[in-house]
Amino acid sequence: MFEALGRPARILLLGGTSEIGIAILAALNAPGDTEVLLAGRDEQRLEAAGKELPLRVSTLAFDATALDTHQAVIDAAFEGGDVDLVISAAGVLVPQEVLNRDPLQAGRLVETNFTGHVTTLLAASERMRAQGHGVIVILSSIAAIRPRKANPVYGAAKAGLDAFGRGLSDALAGSGVRVLLVRPGFVIGKMTRGMPAAPLSTTPAAVGAAVAAALAGDGDIVWVPRALSVLAMGLRLVPRPLWRRVRR
Q1: CATH code assigned to 3-243
Q2: In 52-172, alpha helices (H)
Q3: Which of 20, 121, 176, 246 is deepest in the core (most CB within 10 A)?
Q4: What are the φ and ψ backbone dihedral angles of 224, each rounded to 5 degrees?
C-alpha cells in the first residue's frame, strides 16, 4: 500500500505493545526504511516490541487514559512528516466479576477501549485530512455486535468504538483518508491466556494477515475469520429471553 508514496512510509501504532498491532505491522511486509512509531506507556516493552520488527522503530510516550495529552501525542507523531497509517490498538480485558467490585476500574477500561480512541483518532484524522491521504485501522470486536451479560462493560466499550469508527469513516469520505474497521472474534493470545476459546476463534497472526490483505483492497470492514460475519447476523436475531441464557 506504500509503493506510490515516493518516500519511506510512516506508521503510528497506538497501543504500541499490542500483540495484534505488532502482528499487523509484521504482516504488512513493509520496506525496511518504513518508519514505525510505537506509542505506549512502558518504554521497555515498547523497545522489546520494536526489536521484533525489521523496520525503523522509535517510541512515543502514550497513555490511553490520559485524555488531555492525546492532542500533544498526535502532534508529536506528525512532527516528522505525514503519517500514512494509524493503527488504533490500545485495549485491556478485565474479568467482569472484577469490574463489578471495582466500578472505577470499569471506567478506566472504557477510557482505554473507547474514549481514548475517540480523542486520539479525532486529532489524527484532522491531520490526515489536512495532508489529504492516509488510512486509519480501528480494532473493534465481535463483542461490539451484541454485548453479553458475561462482559457488558467490555462489550459496551467495543460497541461504542465500532459505532464511532463507522461514523468517522462516513465523515472522512472524499477526504482521501480511509477508515478500516476490524472485527475479530475471540483472539487466542496473551490478553486471553487461560480463557477457554470461543467458536470461530482466531490468532493475532491471522488478524494481521487479514488486515494486510484488506489494506490492499478498498473495503471498510474486515471480519476475522470471514465466517464471523454470518454468525454476527444470527446474533442480532436471537430473541432477548434466549440471549440472556448465553453463559459466555
Answers
A1: 3.40.50.720
A2: 70-79, 96-101, 103-110, 116-131, 152-171
A3: 20
A4: -135, 110
Domain spans, the chain: 3-243
Scan for cell 472505577, then name that residue.
Answer: 104
Judge whether 15 and 92 are in contact, CB under 8 Å: no
Whole-number Å distance between alpha carbons of 193 and 195:
6
CA distance 202 to 186: 6
Cell of 41: 506507556
- Tens digits of residue pLDDT in 30-46: 999 999 999 999 999 99
Provide the pairing of β-strand 85-88 with 56-61. unpaired
The model's pTM? 0.94
Look at strands 134-139 and 56-61 and give their pairing: unpaired
| Residue 58, phi-psi category: left (phi > 0), alpha (psi -120 to 50), beta (remainder) | beta
Q: Are 78 and 71 in contact, with CB atoms under 8 Å apart?
A: no
CB atoms within 10 A of CB 146: 16
Averaged confidence pLDDT in the chain: 93
Mind telling me the catalytic residues? 154
- CA dist 192 and 195 (Å) reads 6
